[in-house]
Every structure is written in C-alpha cells, then in structure tokens.
Amino acid sequence: MSLRAPDETTPLSQLFSLEGRVCLVTGGNRGIGFAVCQGYAEAGAAGIAIIHSSEATAELANERALEIEKQYPRTKVRAYKADVANAKEIEDVTKRVFADFGRLDIVVANAGVYTETPALDMLPEEAQYVTGVNYFGPLYTAQAAASIARRKQPSAI
Hints:
single chain, about 160 residues, alpha/beta, 4-stranded parallel β-sheet, 4 strands, NAD(P)-binding protein, NAD(P)-bd_dom_sf
C-alpha cells in the first residue's frame, strides 16, 4: 500500500467522512468552534449541536445554525444554551442533544474566555469566571459526554 499526502485543494469531505454522526460543539457560534461546526457539516455530519452561553449569544448561535444548514442542507443544526462552568447545565443540555438527535458521537469542548486584566489586578470573581469556563467547562463537558457514552457500545472518550 502506498500512502501519499493529499494536495491542498483536496476537499475536506474526501479526507474523512462523518456521515450519520452527531456532533456537539461548545462555543460553536463563533471563532474556532464555528469553523469546527462548518468542517463537520462539510464532512457529512447528520447533526450538529451548537452550545452557546447566554441569551445574549442566542441570536448569533441561531443565525450560525441556519447559515450552516443553508450551506449543508443534509446537516441538521440546532443551538442550545448552557453555561459550561455549570455541571448540571452542561449535563442537562448534553442529554437533551442526545434525546433530540438520537445519538452523540463527537464532543468538542471548545468554549473559552480570556481577560486582558493583569493577574495582579484580577478580582476573585473574574478569576473564578475564567477558571470556570476554561478549566471546569471542558471537565464538565467531558463528564457529560462520558455519561452518555457509557450507555452505548462501542464508545470512546
């Protein structure tokens, strides 16, 4: 068997297929998370759940879901609100995604925040917020996904 690298014009959909798969992406309404959602849709994902953090981000998340569905009509995209720093919220929304789509194959813990406040000037509330999203968010997201993956075989986290 000979292996060769694809050239840079090879479409993503030819490199790997996510046909029939359902994906959940925290922070999927902008930046890297949105690009991940677009890539998964291009690769043939059957469903994508965009997890956004607040009512203020709901409109953008819904617009992005419609944008992806318009470009990739075979992919069903839905926006869900959850604070990833809240274990119960991310667990509940992950269960809702599983119930709505009937499966959950891929989870991307992408949500993140930053601050321009120097560490010496950061108030405890700001430090707790940043740590909650950036540290506990991926942990709680992985735990929620693992609780679903345990129910189905085979699975990998």
